[in-house]
Specification:
The complex is a heterodimer of chains A (665) and B (283). With 665 residues, chain A is an alpha/beta fold. Chain A contains 18 helices and 33 strands. In chain A, helix 2 crosses helix 3, helix 5 packs antiparallel against helix 18 and helix 6 (150-161) crosses helix 7 (192-205). Chain B is built from 15 helices and 8 strands. Classes of the chains: A alpha/beta (665), B alpha/beta (283). The interface between A and B is small, with 9 and 10 residues.
């Protein structure tokens, strides 16, 4: 016979005002199987919890029902209290008398009756509960960081400094990401490369960081603490052990006019080379699609002139497997390509540049050596129009969100332009200027007050060429939408930050979520901002949404702290609320018919196949098996199983139906 | 011979008579019977929809209902404004119960599909147009002009590339002409402001003309009576000397000419800026 204890909480006035708690406790006392019932003002308080502990001991309770707030709030608290008194914590259940009763019903009598019903239902349920034991999983103390931009670098350095080995994967030939392309950074105007490249070098030299540049994640298997990741090391066509980075190969390469990706198409590069002088590692890669040797079979200059014989045309992609316990995803963002904005000079005018292209024009390491020259003819532009929200905050164009970084980088661009072209006119067209952040508004005011940047509250409708020059057609939104046509020598678009083109593929490989725009999803927008819904996978930087450098770095450190926290224990404990495929004595073994609908539906890839064999080793039956490490207890498989062979521990059919039946009484 | 519902609207019955004539002429050559919707009414453009949204939709929906009752489920509306109003009504019929109930007498109304000239000629007629071209527009430099309503708004027209449409260019290329890349293809001509704010219309027209001229255009090609009258009628008022004016042709006229049809049958003699010479000199 069960001996259930029922504890009704007033939650101050939250429940007590609408529900007659004493009456609920009295009604509970009459229920079959209830050995003790009471009500108290704040059950979550220390005296409240002490009462639960004492009652368990004194009345030898076999189960506890707390009528209080939502289980999301205090289920853990009360289960801990039960465990302290020696009761299995999974024999404690919450009847939600606040969110599902007192807060939503004004009538005291009706609310009290409903509270009694709810308590009766949970008392019936808890009688069916079985004791559960937390799942223990071992942890591989090693992390994988995907992405070698500033967020990935920071996460890798923090984890490595914390004493754990890190594999840092970057798909391009060098570390650095977008930050390496930037000229100066807001709000201090310090040189982006100068603060970034020491970090790149530090990561490369760190004894606990292993770099895997020019590599991509091919496959991810396993679960928290025990991931197995397959990486594709793309063929560099250069043996990094022999290469000294002397640069002879790219000086000799006859293909000198390829558009350089690092310069956003504004500069030229060779078919073999490093993307920028401070690249880490300082080892070139052959761009096979554009190399004469690979295209025509002739040439071979780089191999001929290489003093160390490092050039190897026969190199193949290589697959390597890494075991890691945690993964930090720092795959970054992209800038909206201008061909997505055809209203702006058909999206292909050389003198309409993206924000990132302007960074290259302003950068000392860029194609113009840091002088602002327009791409069409190399002239210094006398009027530059900066168009904010180019692609952002525009539902009609498919992106409703604010890209967040543009207001500040536009102020910076306009400022840099005014410094570099004295007497030039810098006009910013903005919907409004958003500058939350330390020193940010001061920076924007400085652009106006010290550097004479003109801000017009306006939305650029069109950009077109007239008599050879660019015209930005806009509406003056402070003056009844009066039309303004601005002649410009150069137009800089504050191009929207957009997710990486292949973000969905990456997310699917990792088994993590993404939103409608393609940003990777955090587990909770406020309280779990760096975790994903898949345990052991964390987010850092702009892959989760537009972010500036300080924010990316802060999130990267947070993700690193989460990973280190995971590594602090030798094994992990997980809530045992996971699915289970039933096992029965022979000859049935299980009611599972092996249709594997569950495996296809499982969002966490937690279900695989198990072969039941006889003593001779012959396969008798194939059934589904839930990996308890991976399962997140969502219950999708339970609802889909047509032979009712799967149950969710902690939410078994028996438990849930007893609760429902008690409600129908 | 296939049958297509035909909604000429007021302008093709009046100021844009040459559009009507050229359209009927090429339809004949394309083996399409244009069957006018019996008892059609005003599409509700400009005045009606500026005053009462609901009433404007009902006007256009009434015409669609008449088409449905006549068994015409595809309705060609050559005028860009008419097309836009009919398409808006068709969309409203599918999404707003109010209008559907008001027109209960035409069951299946939601099946009526208004079609623009570009939608009609641009879909599946390419091979035919090319085959029927016997007098190609070899080398004729054409500024294809869409104006506002032929492709916009995208919610109503369903056109993807509203800022850089290329359907008209594709047709002109089939005819052997040389469509130009220019900057004002989707600029507004000023439309009916010709009556109330003429300076605006003249200013807009001049900008459109200048851009086309600068791109090297010999003729304009368009498919909207409003655009046509603003560009063809007012080049003098825009201050363009006689010799420098650009002929403004309907797409259907260009097609008809390429098919070898007679200039007068296509109404090419009806324009303020003489057009026949520009076409004839190419030969």
């Amino acid at each position: 016979m069960s001996r259930i204890g029922v504890f009704i909480c007033h939650c101050g006035e939250n429940i007590g005002k609408t529900v007659d708690c004493a009456r609920v406790a009295a009604a509970a006392r009459q229920l079959p199987g209830v050995a003790y019932a009471q009500d108290y003002r704040y059950t979550c308080s220390e005296p409240g919890q002490a009462q639960i502990r004492e009652a368990i001991r004194e009345h030898q309770l076999t189960g506890v029902v707390v009528g209080a707030c939502s289980p999301r709030m205090h289920e853990k608290t009360f289960r801990k209290a039960c465990a302290a008194a020696g009761l299995n914590p999974y024999l404690c259940e919450i009847a939600n008398l606040r969110e599902q009763c007192s807060w939503v019903h004004p009538d005291r009598e009706q609310a009290t009756r409903k509270a009694i019903d709810l308590v009766r239902s949970i008392v019936a349920r808890v009688q069916r509960n079985t004791p559960l034991v937390p799942i223990r999983v071992p942890v591989t103390r090693r992390a994988l960081v995907i992405g070698g931009g500033i967020a990935g670098l920071q996460a890798a350095l923090d984890i490595a400094d914390g004493g754990t080995e890190v594999v840092l994967v970057e798909r391009s030939p060098s570390l650095g990401g977008h930050m390496a392309q930037l000229s100066e950074t807001f709000p201090t105007l310090d040189c982006s490369q100068c603060i970034l490249t020491p970090r790149m070098v530090e990561a490369a030299a760190h004894p606990r960081i292993r770099l895997e540049t020019y590599s991509e994640v091919e496959r991810v298997e396993g679960y928290v603490g025990n991931f197995e990741v397959t990486l594709r090391r793309k063929a560099r066509s250069v043996d990094p052990r022999k290469c000294t980075g002397c640069g002879t190969c790219w000086q000799k390469c006859p293909q000198k006019k390829l558009p350089g990706e690092f310069d956003e198409g504004l500069g030229r590069r060779t078919a073999i080379g490093i993307p920028f002088p401070q690249a880490v590692p300082n080892k070139p890669v052959i761009d096979r699609a554009n190399c004469l040797k690979f295209k025509t079979g002739r040439c071979g200059a780089c191999q001929k002139f290489c003093p160390t014989g490092a050039v190897d045309y026969t190199q193949q992609d290589e697959l390597v497997t890494e075991k890691v316990g945690a993964i930090v995803v720092a795959t970054g963002f992209q800038v909206l390509p201008k061909d997505q904005l055809p209203a702006y000079a058909d999206g292909d005018d050389p003198d309409v540049v993206t924000g990132l292209q302007f960074e290259r024009l302003a950068s000392a390491s860029g194609p113009t050596g840091g002088e602002i020259r327009r791409p069409s003819d190399g002239q210094a532009p006398q009027t530059v129009v900066f168009v904010q929200c180019a692609g952002s905050r525009d539902r009609a164009k498919g992106r409703a969100y604010c890209s967040k970084i543009c207001c500040l980088y536009t102020a910076k661009h306009a400022m840099l332009y005014r410094h570099k072209v004295p007497g030039g006119r810098a006009i910013v067209l903005c919907m409004d200027v958003r500058t939350p952040g330390k020193g940010y508004d001061e920076f924007y005011r400085r652009a106006i007050e010290q550097d004479g940047v003109i801000y017009l509250r306006s939305r650029a409708a069109r950009i077109y060429r007239e008599h050879g020059g660019l015209v930005v057609q806009a509406a003056d939104t402070l003056n009844g939408g009066e039309r303004i046509d601005l002649k410009a020598d150069l137009v800089v678009l504050a191009s929207a930050a957009v997710p990486q083109a292949d973000v969905r593929t990456v997310a699917q490989k990792l088994g993590i979520g993404y939103d409608a725009d393609g940003w990777l999803s955090e587990a909770h927008p406020k309280l779990r901002p760096v975790e994903t819904n898949t345990a052991g996978i964390f987010l850092a930087g702009a892959c989760q949404g537009p972010k500036d450098i300080p924010e990316s770095v802060a999130q990267a450190s947070a993700a690193a702290a989460k990973a280190l926290g995971l590594f602090a224990a030798t094994e992990l404990q997980r809530d045992p609320v996971v699915a289970r495929v039933n096992r029965l004595p022979p000859p049935l073994f299980s009611t599972c018919i092996g249709c594997f609908t569950c495996a296809a539906a499982c969002p966490y890839k937690a279900i695989d196949r198990e072969e039941i064999r006889d003593r001779q080793g012959a396969v008798i039956k194939r059934v589904a098996r839930v990996n308890r490490g991976l399962c997140q207890g969502c219950g999708t498989c339970v609802s889909l199983c047509r032979s009712k062979s799967i149950d969710l521990d902690g939410f078994t059919d028996e438990e849930v139906f007893s609760a429902l039946e008690a409600l129908m009484e | 011979m296939s049958v297509l519902g035909y909604y000429p609207g007021c302008s093709l019955n009046g100021s844009a008579g040459e559009y009507d004539r050229s359209l009927r002429a090429i339809a004949g050559r394309l083996d399409v019977e244009l069957r006018e919707i019996p008892d059609w009414v005003c599409c509700g453009a400009t005045s009606a929809h500026a005053i009462n949204h609901e009433a404007a939709l009902c006007l256009a929906a009434d015409t669609l209902a008449k088409a449905r009752r006549a068994g015409l489920d595809r309705v060609l509306a050559p005028c860009a404004m008419c097309y836009q109003r009919l398409a808006a009504a068709a969309l409203a019929v599918r999404h707003q119960a109010a209008i559907a109930t008001a027109l209960e007498e035409a069951p299946g109304l939601e099946q009526v599909q208004p079609v623009s000239v570009l939608g009609w000629l641009g879909n599946g007629l390419a091979a035919t147009l090319q085959a029927k071209t016997i007098r190609p527009l070899t080398g004729l430099k054409v500024a294809c002009y869409y104006g506002c309503l032929l492709v916009r708004p995208p919610q109503i027209t369903g056109v993807q590339q509203v800022e850089t449409p290329r359907q008209m260019e594709a047709i002109v290329t089939l005819l052997g002409g040389q469509p130009l890349r220019w900057t004002m293809a989707t600029e507004c001509c000023g439309a009916s402001f010709a009556l109330s704010r003429k300076e605006t219309v003249l200013r807009q027209g001049r900008r459109i003309y200048d851009a086309a001229r600068q791109a090297g255009a010999e003729v304009f090609c368009l498919a909207c009576p409003m655009c046509h009258s603003n560009l063809d009628l007012r080049q003098g008022e825009m201050g363009i000397p006689t010799g420098a004016r650009l002929p403004v042709l309907y797409l259907t006229q260009l097609i008809g000419w390429a098919m070898g049809l007679d200039a007068v049958a296509l109404g090419l003699d009806q324009h303020f800026v003489p057009a026949i010479q520009a076409l004839a000199k190419e030969k």
